[in-house]
Design brief:
- The protein is of the alpha/beta class and about 425 residues long.
- Helices cover about 50% and strands about 5% of the residues.
- A 6-stranded parallel β-sheet has the order 3-2-4-5-1-6, sandwiched between helices.
- Helix 9 links the parallel strand 4 and strand 5.
- Helix 3 packs across helix 8 and helix 12 packs across helix 13.
- The chain is globular.
- It starts with a strand and ends in a 9-residue tail after the last helix.
């Protein structure tokens, strides 16, 4: 049975889900709260706080990846070797080396930094959407007016096909595990007694929809919280992606000869009026005016990103100093971290604002990591110049800078490497 809880952002959909889980906890009903993998920790904290308990035995916070591991460990499939992103890159490199004559356009590109990472991501997305590589290669033959595009599509399909053959029966990644999960769900009869609650999803991949359909056929109760306004609002195009998800779930229910139950959350938003007004009118061509005071929102026009960050720092200092806020109560959202993060770090430090910037950092940019790799490479690569001085220039040694610079000049002059260091 599929149920839908629909409502705009911050209208209480998650609270309804947590309330139901709290009720199930009191009745000892086994439940799974399904969220995207990156939300599992925060969802566990929110759930524990909402239920107000120190432990949960009958409720689990799960992602599709976690559910796959649990089901496959019970019903087979978990023992196949797991391949991570680095392993995928190595496999793709081996494919490029083996099929040099077939892969023409991308033969030179695969050695560029970041290319294999992007290609791996592309293949992963195609796998999630159940795209057949032979379909790509077949479509490439139809394109006659653009030979370059045709060749690109063919080669991507060819690489994808060879990658699947390489993985088949040898390794699994997260996408393969979700595919295996769909195959094993019908064996996991214990899941039919569990109530599933899906929250924080905007959509599902083909593999995930396959799992959902198998769970529905198994007889499990499935409840989905979707950010969707059912009242036909003026900004309804904003909800098109979620409407597509709703349509997919309705098709799953139709194939099972079931009716879908939709509950619309109509409670008043807890957001300040100004924020709620902006959320409802931002994407409307001619928004309705309001006579209410716009409390809760301020708009500043800045000439540069730096002055924008400085104004933000002023506001934060004022909130903490004059209005009793704590730094942990304040969050700064930015759309372009590559532009703002360095400015925020510098200006917030000047204003003595403790802060943490949640962005991905290149691990190889760490001096400590570079020192460790350089140290290991010295032994592996027979004391190459780059490795020796990469280690020394990490500044994690007791050798003074002026000394290793003199040594570097001497090594470059005489071409010292390998056994020459000990001669």
């Amino acid at each position: 049975m599929i149920k839908i809880i629909a409502g705009r952002a911050s209208y209480g959909k998650t609270k309804k889900v947590l309330d139901k889980l709290k009720e199930n906890h009191k009745k000892s009903i086994s439940s799974y709260l399904m969220v995207p993998e990156q939300f599992t920790l925060q969802s566990e904290l929110s759930l524990m706080e909402h239920i107000d308990t120190d432990s949960l035995m009958d409720i689990k916070v799960m992602s599709f990846e976690r559910l796959a591991k649990e089901v496959l460990s019970r019903h087979g499939g978990i023992k196949r070797p797991y391949i991570d992103e680095i392993g995928k890159h190595m496999a793709l490199r081996a494919i490029f080396d083996k099929y040099k004559e077939e892969i023409i356009l991308y033969q030179g590109a695969f050695k560029r930094e970041g290319f294999l990472e992007e290609l791996s991501h592309t293949l992963s997305e195609m796998k999630k959407m159940n795209i057949d590589p032979t379909l790509l290669m077949g479509k490439s033959e139809i394109i006659e007016d653009n030979k370059l595009l045709s060749q690109k599509i063919y080669e991507v399909g060819f690489i994808y096909q060879r990658f699947i053959e390489y993985m088949d029966g040898r390794y699994v990644d997260n996408d393969d595990r979700i595919g295996l999960l769909a195959e094993k769900v019908e064996l996991a009869k214990e899941l039919s007694d569990i109530e599933f609650y899906f929250d924080s999803f905007t959509g599902f991949t083909s593999l995930e929809l396959n799992v959902i359909e198998k769970l529905n056929l198994l007889g499990a109760n499935l409840t989905f919280a979707l950010t969707l306004d059912m009242s036909n609002p003026k900004d309804k195009e904003v909800f098109f992606p979620t409407e597509g998800t709703l349509t997919q779930l309705m098709e799953i229910a139709k194939r099972a000869d079931e009716k879908i139950e939709i509950m619309s959350v109509e409670q008043v938003s807890k957001k300040p009026f100004a924020i709620d007004y902006i959320e409802k009118n931002l994407f409307i061509q001619r928004p309705a005016s309001s006579e209410k005071e716009a409390a809760g929102a301020k708009i500043y026009k800045a000439l540069t990103a730096e002055s924008e960050v400085q104004r933000c720092a002023h506001e934060i200092v004022g909130l903490v100093r004059d209005e009793g806020f704590r730094y942990k109560d304040i969050a700064v959202l930015m759309s372009m971290p590559e532009i703002y993060s360095s400015k925020i770090n510098r200006i917030f430090t000047e204003y003595e604002i403790p802060h943490f910037i949640d962005i991905k950092r290149d691990i190889m940019a760490s001096p400590l990591i570079n020192m460790i790799f350089s140290f290991l490479d010295m032994g592996i690569r027979n004391l190459r110049y780059e490795d020796v001085f990469g280690f020394l220039k990490s500044d994690f040694t007791d050798i003074k800078r002026e000394n290793y610079l003199k040594l570097e000049n001497f090594v470059l002059k005489w071409g010292i490497k390998g056994k020459m260091w000990s001669d």
